[in-house]
Design brief:
Blueprint lengths: L3 E5 L4 H11 L6 E5 L5 E5 L7 E5 L6 H17 L4 E6 L18 H12 L3 E5 L14 E4 L2 H11 L4 E5 L5 H11 L2 E11 L2 E8 L6 E9 L3 H12 L4 E9 L5 H7 L2 E7 L6 H4 L4 E4 L2 H13 L9
Parallel strand pairs: 1-4, 4-5, 5-6, 6-7, 8-9, 8-11, 11-12, 12-13, 13-14
Antiparallel strand pairs: 2-3, 9-10
Length: 312
């Protein structure tokens, strides 16, 4: 592994350390400093010439700070003559802005993809993209990992009979159907109407949830408006108990208060984004680690083995 180095940004150092422990390599040394006006200064402390380099950095809150830090690290490694630079982005920020939803708005997910490529990334490893077609925004290889093996393993251990997987909107039906098939569970869908960004209204439940154990499945939870509305609609339809699983715990604004006051018994998330202090104090939230999954993807990428076979 002499030609293999992992670096970490400051967005999620705990996850980076867990990944390195799984792979059994130390984190590469770098200095991340600030000028007095707030500009980020990067200095790589390792010789990376002709080496295979992986940079782990989620572009979570503060999104712009973490994104610029990642870009500067990529540029520093490119200028230090690294052979291949892989940006490992467990949570890809700006992914929700993947199309024009109104006149004169940017397609931010595409712009971020272009910036990452120009900065020096030659490959991307990410997890549960908000929309799969974002992979096509890049002109470099993209491995889009899935938290499904970790979450499905948890659901199998905790729930047995009368299980129904629910998609909180039409966009997540394919994901929910795949989970339901693998778990031999029922499937239901929430008919949701959104009046404005981060504001949702759950209208109706399509499917049978009466006296069932319900698991709402989504790729992320931001303000938890969609999730709480969905849980309320499901409870009105006679569900026995309601749980939720998601990959990315964005949990901004009033999310924690909404979850605490909701009909949800538990919210299961992964550690693609580190939980804030108030989220860690919420006894309804349980965190599963995807460090081994990402670590295995990094090993396979370095060796040239199949990454897709992780999810077959």
């Amino acid at each position: 592994m002499d030609d293999f180095i992992i670096f970490s940004g400051n967005s999620n150092p705990v996850l980076s350390q867990k990944i390195c422990e799984y792979i059994n390599v130390p984190l590469g040394g770098e200095k991340v400093k600030r000028f007095s006006d707030g500009e980020i200064q990067i200095e790589i402390d390792e010789n990376v010439r002709s080496k295979d380099v992986f940079v782990i950095q989620s572009t979570c809150s503060p999104v712009n700070e973490n994104l610029v830090e990642l870009l500067l690290m990529l540029d520093a490694l490119k200028r230090a003559s690294a052979d291949r630079i892989t940006a490992v982005i467990p949570y890809y920020g700006y992914a929700r802005q993947d199309k024009k939803v109104a006149p004169r708005v940017p397609i931010s997910a595409k712009l971020v993809a272009d910036i990452l490529t120009v900065a020096g990334a030659t490959r991307i490893i990410t997890m549960d993209l908000h929309a799969g077609q974002i992979q096509g925004f890049f002109n470099i290889p993209v491995d889009n990992l899935f938290a499904a093996p970790v979450i499905i393993g948890y659901i199998r251990k905790k729930f047995n009979n009368d299980l129904v997987i629910v998609s909180p909107d039409a966009g997540g039906v394919e994901r929910a159907r795949a989970f339901a098939k693998r778990l031999n569970a029922g499937l239901a869908i929430i008919d949701k109407r959104r009046d404005a960004p981060n504001k949702a209204k759950a209208m109706a439940v399509i499917g049978d949830v009466t006296d069932k154990v319900v698991v709402i499945l989504d790729d992320m939870v931001d303000t938890a408006g969609t999730l709480v509305e969905a849980a309320g609609a499901i409870m009105k339809n006679g569900a026995r108990e309601i749980h939720a699983c998601c990959c990315h715990p964005v949990l901004s604004g009033p999310a924690i208060e909404r979850i605490g006051d909701s009909d949800l018994k538990t919210l299961v998330v992964t550690d693609t984004i580190p939980l804030k202090k108030n989220a860690r104090a919420c006894n309804k939230i349980k965190v599963l680690s995807i460090s081994e999954l990402i670590g295995e993807a990094i090993i396979r990428s370095f060796r040239g083995d199949s990454v897709t076979s992780l999810f077959v």
